[in-house]
Amino acid sequence: MILDKEHLRANLDEVIWNIEQARITVSEHHIVKLVTVAKYTELENITTLYELGQRAFGENQVQQLKERMQSLEALPLEWHMIGTLQKNKINNLIDLRPTLMQSLDSLALATELNKKLLSKETKMNCLLQVNAANEESKSGVSSEEAVDIYHTIKETCPQINLKGLMTIGAHTDDTKLIQQSFETTHSIYEKLQKDGAAVCSMGMSSDYELAIKCGSNLVRVGSALFK
Q1: Are 1 and 207 a contacting pair, CB within 8 Å?
Q2: Count of CB atoms within 10 A of residue 6's CB?
Q3: How many Cα atoms sit within 13 Å of 107 on the Cβ side?
Q4: Average pLDDT over residues 150-162
């Protein structure tokens, strides 16, 4: 569905207002980046959001990311890969040169990605995905192993610039459990800040305000912008 500019402006203003309100509860110095999840929306809506000042967009699939980047290459957009990366798509992703790959979900994937990056003589900014709620349906490293795996990737995968962590909140209506998964990830993030971790990506359309209150500094919002 193509939304008109004023409708999108109202949605964007509402999300930004909510981010501001949540951000201030942490600290007036707490900065939060908004990445628009564009997977279900039309190109026209992305263009309109760009006109309204939004710059960062994320896609779940490499093929979709490629199509979007090519169609909108005239715009200076910042693209994020936020979905599970299959090993057979690694080379395709490297060629797209995303600003940030948020879903590095295992040491095995990091090793494979590093190998391919090395052969192409390039580097990639990544976030380590943590499965903080320990849900079988989600990918990511366990919260118990996250610090060790983060250090291992830093030591053994020089082509990967680890920038921090990403998590998806617990898949439940129980706010306490969602909050717990965010707090778990944020406490790991705090431990890794001395190792250069600067991004704590938590929160989507249904829970981004809660995520920010738990310390998130990057939220991935889709449906709340395109309703």
Answers
A1: no
A2: 9
A3: 13
A4: 98
